[in-house]
Design goal:
By secondary structure, the protein is α/β, with parallel strands linked by helices. The protein has one domain: Lambda Exonuclease, Chain A (Alpha-Beta Complex), CATH 3.90.320. Helices cover 38% and strands 18% of the residues. A five-stranded mixed β-sheet has the order 2-5-6-7-8. Strand 7 and strand 8 form a beta hairpin.
């Protein structure tokens, strides 16, 4: 049986493949030991989605488990607005739309499409400042990039990986002490 890729790991992998590896090691420990304050805040704010407390309106589907047989993906969405056919991914604070964010949202989109949901729009919602950012639906070029990333993840071999030190990324990595 072929294994599935967790949608939540896409952003981590794009940030740095080592972070996925280190995350799996730290999974057995309490997040209090290694999470930064911003991560803890983000987790707490996501609890409303996980407990279906975003809204009681029936138009909002919250925390739905999704999968894609085509891409071998699985995960959960934050919010699907069934009336407007919008997929909404919530982040604690969005300073910039990173590729990892975008491909995570695309993964959710492709899963919903495969599950026969109509999706007309994609949004990121920044909880801290209550701003919403619309993202274009993936065109052919973006879909090809997405598919290459999925293939890269499927073919990834940690033993052969040669990390490239990136001061901007490494400074923001919670695993910096374990790397290099």
């Amino acid at each position: 049986m072929e294994s599935y890729i967790q949608i939540s790991k896409l952003n981590d992998f794009i940030f740095c493949p080592y972070s996925v590896y280190f995350h799996s090691i730290y999974d057995i420990f309490s997040p209090k030991l290694y999470h930064r304050a911003s991560q803890t805040i983000g987790k707490l704010k996501h609890k409303n989605i996980e407990k279906w407390q975003y809204s009681t309106a029936k138009r909002y589907i919250q925390g739905l488990s999704v999968y894609s047989d085509k891409y071998k993906l699985m995960g959960k969405i934050d919010i699907y607005d069934a009336k407007e056919h919008c997929l909404i991914e919530r982040k604690n604070k969005i300073k910039k739309i990173y590729d990892g964010y975008k491909y995570q949202l695309y993964a959710q989109y492709f899963c919903l499409k495969e599950m026969k949901f109509e999706v007309k729009k994609l949004f990121f919602h920044s909880l801290s400042d209550n701003k919403r950012y619309e993202i274009n639906l993936p065109d052919e070029k973006e879909t090809e990039k997405f598919e290459k990333i999925i293939q890269t993840i499927k073919n990834f071999n940690l033993a052969e990986f040669k990390p490239i030190k990136n001061p901007n990324k490494c400074a923001n990595c919670i695993y910096i002490e374990l790397c290099f």
